[in-house]
């Protein structure tokens, strides 16, 4: 039986957003901008890690967002029971398209043994777990506009059921040439990754569902500006937007959860 979300609380231990080429400003102050391609060299240098050459943009941006959680990721012992849930609808579709094109034009034998595994829909979540040694439950969600909120809900269930002590939830979407070709009708899409670390920590803000709030037009506009067309990343972005606010009303305007001391 599903858990009653209205009766469950958890804590937001840390949060991070990574958007290539964007200044390090608050979410509420960010504006739509043309997507900037993220290369594996940038990420390899930032993380001081090899083996990222064949990773797609969704994976690379997610790694940068999780790295932004910093020391909050905890000790090796804490990471043993830290789960990973990733939400993305476009995910690694560019890799899938490129592999399909190569197979159609040549043969499956022409595909790279290094690149082909990245066509798996779970490649993002698996890579995060491997790079950061997070050994708990590992899940990938690709289920529409509510995917991000569902990911937070699943994290909440893992915590409540004792399946994990902490959960890293990542929302990531990519805006590149392959995706614009497949979905040409949207003028602007979120291009980046957002990560939150959820758990039970006494000095962290508590999160609980909000049932009623008076949302102003200004607050709604701020949410749409940042989260519009964010698809699978929207739920995580809304939670981070709420965390930037001091007023419960403003929090409610940005997410179905309230972040409170």
Automatic annotation (TrEMBL):
GO terms for MF: acyltransferase activity
Start and end residues of each Beta-ketoacyl synthase-like N-terminal domain: 68-175
Gene3D superfamilies cross-referenced by the UniProt entry: 3.40.47.10
Source domain of life: Bacteria
UniProt xrefs under Pfam families: ketoacyl-synt (PF00109)
Protein name: Beta-ketoacyl synthase, N-terminal domain
Species assigned in the record: Pontivivens marinum
Higher taxonomy: Bacteria, Pseudomonadati, Pseudomonadota, Alphaproteobacteria, Rhodobacterales
């Amino acid at each position: 039986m599903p858990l009653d979300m209205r009766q469950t609380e958890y804590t937001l231990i840390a949060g991070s957003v990574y958007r290539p080429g964007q200044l390090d400003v608050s979410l509420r102050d960010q504006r739509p901008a043309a997507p900037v391609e993220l290369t594996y060299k940038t990420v390899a240098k930032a993380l001081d890690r090899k083996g990222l050459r064949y990773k797609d943009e969704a994976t690379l941006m997610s790694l940068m967002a999780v790295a932004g959680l910093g020391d909050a990721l905890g000790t090796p012992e804490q990471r043993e029971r830290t789960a990973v849930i990733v939400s993305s609808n476009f995910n690694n579709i560019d890799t899938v398209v490129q592999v399909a094109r190569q197979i159609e034009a040549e043969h499956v034998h022409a595909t790279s043994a290094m690149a082909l595994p990245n066509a798996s829909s779970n490649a993002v979540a698996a890579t995060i777990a491997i790079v950061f040694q997070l050994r708990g439950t590992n899940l990938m969600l690709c289920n529409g506009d509510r995917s991000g909120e569902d990911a937070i809900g699943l994290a909440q269930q893992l915590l409540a059921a004792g399946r994990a002590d902490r959960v890293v939830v990542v929302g990531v979407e990519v805006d590149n040439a392959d995706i614009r070709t497949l979905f040409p009708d949207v003028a602007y899409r979120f291009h980046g990754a957002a990560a939150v670390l959820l758990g039970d920590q006494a000095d962290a803000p508590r999160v609980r569902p909000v049932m009623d709030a008076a949302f102003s037009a200004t607050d709604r506009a701020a949410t749409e500006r940042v989260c519009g067309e964010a698809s699978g990343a929207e739920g995580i972005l809304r939670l981070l937007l709420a965390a930037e606010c001091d007023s419960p009303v403003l929090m409610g305007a940005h997410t179905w959860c309230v972040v409170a001391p």
